[in-house]
Design goal:
CATH architecture: 2-Layer Sandwich
Number of strands: 6
Number of domains: 1
CATH class: Alpha Beta
Length: 180
């Protein structure tokens, strides 16, 4: 990860945090260049570590999802607003599974976007986890719908990650990061 004006200790702590989050975590520059993907991405896809930075990660997105994802990203980038989208990502066995991907911009003290922080969650895996619970618990958790539950859980994780990221970087003497 290359964050200008952030010391290496701070970056090391941030990388440690990203590795324990049980989801795919990514960081992108303001222009969308993917700077970092945690090890869960490489485990899931089977790609070699550091081989997906830049735009190379796009090869694992289902071909039918690439253009809609690109359009959603361009709209979010132009507005400087968070985005959420569902897409299919190719697993290391060649099978595509549905993911919910969300990203939020991180801004400096002048309000400029300095990075995008995102998380992609395996919706099929989550659904399987819920199916394995007993029926009463599913009824209690699934109100009003499984989609709402998934989206809420992912939103909380992205917000927690962005908060941790901001707090970690704020400890650096050379940067001042604030959430929008």
């Amino acid at each position: 990860m290359d964050l200008p004006h952030v010391n290496n200790d701070c970056l090391s702590r941030l990388a440690d945090i990203c590795e324990v989050i049980p989801e795919i975590v990514f960081f992108s520059r303001p222009d969308g260049y993917c700077e970092y993907l945690n090890s869960h991405f490489y485990d899931y896809t089977g790609m070699k570590v550091c081989s997906a930075e830049g735009g190379a990660w796009e090869q694992i997105v289902h071909p039918a999802d690439r253009e809609p994802n690109w359009q959603r990203w361009l709209l979010s980038k132009s507005r400087g607003k968070p985005y959420a989208l569902c897409n299919r990502l190719r697993r290391n066995n060649g099978r595509h599974q549905w993911f919910l991907s969300r990203s939020q911009p991180l801004r400096n003290s002048q309000g400029e976007i300095i990075f995008w922080v995102g998380i992609s969650s395996d919706m099929e895996g989550m659904a399987g986890d819920y199916r394995n619970r007993n029926t009463a618990e599913i009824r209690r958790l699934a109100w009003p719908s499984p989609e709402f539950l998934y989206a809420s859980e992912i939103a909380m994780r992205v917000n927690r990650l962005a908060t941790l990221f901001s707090e970690t970087l704020a400890q650096s003497d050379k940067s001042s990061i604030s959430r929008p």
